[in-house]
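WARN retry 2 of 3 for item q-0093 after timeout on previous attempt; input resubmitted unchanged.
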Amino acid sequence: MKNLLTTQQLKNKYDPDSILKAIENIYVDNLEKLHSSLAKNESPLLKYNSSVQISLLDTNKSDRTELINDISASLKDTIYFMMLSKKERTKVSQRMRSYYTDLIKNYLLRIDLIIEDPEICSPRYDNDPTPKHKGINQIIDILLIIRNDLEPEKAYRDTLSRSSYLTGLQISMGEFFIKLQKLGMTQSDQISLVEHLFDDFKVDWDQGDRENIKISLQQPALETYKMVQQDISKTSNTLYSKKLSDDIIVDTIEHAVLLKKRSRRF
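OK item q-0093 returned
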């Protein structure tokens, strides 16, 4: 118990807020450059006009500017990682992953400490006629369903591969590639667009050939994105209890989804 850090102590140890602020600042500072890169004449993105956007994206966006804004928004985290060196990208991924891994482990340990003592604040005696503590019972019921969601999340994190200088790019580019697919963009144009972006931002990475972008970035990005979306969709099935009100269940699900999105961001 003495070594069980609080959430604030973990934040002090890993300082995740500084990275999150840096992501916001770098995105804002480089947004104009990103727009210019996506909008230049040789950009493959410009081959996909508004009629394609409307039919395949089911949206009211009808001009090039809105398309560029939409694609840019999906690259918010990516721009941050693009601006870092390979060594810096690896350190950021390791740091944020360690933070969320320790955070979830500590949550589970704290939950178990309470669940293991059902008589907390209400000690029982032999043949005790006193009713059980309804408030504590409800707290334990809530913690039980939260634990049901955190345990597979911990298992997921235990199986994560070692972070590399590509990890941040792979995880952050999933939505970007999904949007390109929905646009109907060809595989060749998707690779070309990534090449243009990386050239314009002078990204530090082992370039290789076009196939390397597909294997090292696109495929892992899509696989990770789809897995996260699937796991999020399962959350409502995991977090259910007949003992709790609908309002509590809905609130618990919303916070579980938020934690999953935040922890899987890195």
